[in-house]
Write a structure and sequence with these properties.
With 297 residues, this protein is mostly helical. The protein has 13 helices and no strands.
Length: 297
């Protein structure tokens, strides 16, 4: 009995010593690491802050040297001008509809395609997957003309579905989900489910998707942010002001001969607020999903 107690005490002391050593290593972070982190945060946040400063003053602030680093009291006036110049609220609603549709749709469809490439056996699977990956090397600008011809043939010009449908799946999303499913879901688990009588859809929805939900959430959030910030494709297919997305509405704030930087920055600040709110609420889940995929072997 005494020998057991002694061995238990030795194990406990070794564990506590290991914790102290690890704690000491974690606690001995060099001071310059914090300096570099602070500098990185300042450099990353300064453009956003300067945009807010210009949005609260006027256009002259953007070209003043040395630059003005404190906000003014002109924000509400410029915001009122933005709302009077273009239907900005409707544009934000349109962007929200498009971004949510693409975020949710791409997460689901890319997860389905990734599941097919990772776990289903069919002829030409590897060749088709290589073809999908190769499309990532094609610049987006090269697909604008054929994509517009298809949208025009479907009579979707100046509609929101012209923005939603082409963004529902991407080669990167399929590759992302395929790799995550391959590393996270075992073949033995799927074989056991098939022996129990589950079909492919039931296996995906009840077994695979709960496992890959963090990765699908990250993919959906990336799709949301990308579609919210997209300018080129909406600028090509949208014609009427009531169908504008938020980026096209910001472009409409500029006249043909001059640019009111204060007005443009006020519109940009309004367009940035939803993204900031989204990151505040889901930023932790996004980081968790990315790190979860990074450490799976």
């Amino acid at each position: 009995m005494s020998e057991t107690l002694n061995s238990t005490q030795l194990m406990a002391s070794a564990t506590s010593a290991g914790r102290k050593r690890n704690g000491g290593r974690i606690g001995r972070i060099p001071w310059y690491t914090y300096v570099l982190l602070v500098c990185a945060v300042v450099v990353s946040m300064f453009p956003l802050y300067f945009m807010f400063v210009v949005a609260t003053t006027d256009s002259a602030t953007a070209t003043t040297l040395p630059p003005r680093l404190y906000p003014g009291d002109n924000l509400f006036h410029l915001v009122g001008l933005v709302l009077e110049t273009v239907p900005f609220i409707q544009s934000m609603i349109n962007s929200l509809i498009v971004a949510l549709s693409i975020g949710v749709g791409s997460a689901l469809l890319c997860a389905l395609a990734g599941f097919a490439f990772a776990k289903l056996e069919f002829r030409g699977r590897n060749a088709l997957f290589i073809l999908v990956v190769l499309t990532m090397t094609v610049p987006t600008q090269l697909s604008v003309i054929p994509q517009y011809l298809i949208i025009s043939a479907l009579d979707w010009v100046d509609t929101l579905q012209a923005l939603i449908v082409p963004g529902l799946a991407s080669a990167f999303g399929i590759f992302w989900m395929r790799q995550h499913i391959s590393s996270s879901v075992s073949d033995e688990l799927l074989q056991a489910a098939r022996l129990d009588g589950a079909n492919s859809w039931q296996i995906f929805w009840r077994i695979v998707f709960p496992v890959i939900r963090p990765a699908a959430f990250v993919l959906g959030l990336l799709g949301f942010v990308g579609s919210w910030n997209d300018f080129l494709w909406p600028f090509i297919v949208l014609k009427s002001p009531e169908m504008y997305t938020v980026q096209i509405a910001i472009k409409a704030l500029q006249s043909q001969r001059s640019i009111d930087l204060g007005l443009a920055m006020a519109g940009s600040f309004l367009a940035t607020i939803p993204l900031l709110i989204a990151f505040i609420f889901v930023g932790k889940r996004m980081v968790t999903g990315i790190m979860d995929g990074a450490f799976k072997g």
